[in-house]
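ok, trying the design again with the full structure, not the truncated one.
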């Protein structure tokens, strides 16, 4: 498998997922707070995303190509960045991203691995598992 470095437009943070992905979703036709929130967040410029917004969308595997680098930047400042749940909820969500994403986006996997490699004991103590993330380890070395 060939890995290509992601090249994002210089102003991608000022765009919405809807613009970047060139995909306009239909409004959800059922009552679900989560579905409505994800629908709404697709229309928010990425530079306005909160930690909670990142956690929600990454948890739903939406817009990963754009949101994972933002999440990694956030975690670089504070590995235990907190959305609405608990300290470290963004990291935990990021570590649960589908392994196929990490296999395609090796450079993001490496960045996240570098962030957590010296803090694994701390993660174990806070009950943040790296098992799923680590399961793609052999594919990314």
């Amino acid at each position: 498998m060939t890995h290509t470095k992601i090249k994002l437009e210089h102003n991608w943070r000022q765009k919405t997922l809807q613009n970047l992905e060139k995909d306009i979703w239909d409004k959800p036709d059922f009552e679900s707070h989560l579905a409505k929130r994800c629908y709404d967040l697709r229309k928010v410029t990425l530079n306005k995303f909160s930690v909670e917004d990142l956690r929600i969308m990454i948890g739903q595997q939406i817009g990963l190509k754009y949101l994972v680098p933002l999440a990694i930047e956030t975690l670089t400042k504070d590995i235990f960045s907190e959305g609405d749940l608990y300290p470290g909820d963004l990291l935990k969500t990021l570590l649960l991203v589908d392994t196929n994403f990490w296999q395609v986006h090796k450079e993001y996997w490496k960045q996240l691995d570098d962030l957590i490699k010296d803090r694994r004991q701390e993660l174990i103590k806070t009950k943040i598992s790296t098992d799923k993330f680590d399961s793609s380890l052999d594919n990314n070395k």
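Keeping the full-length input from now on. Residues 1-5 have pLDDT under 50 and may be disordered.
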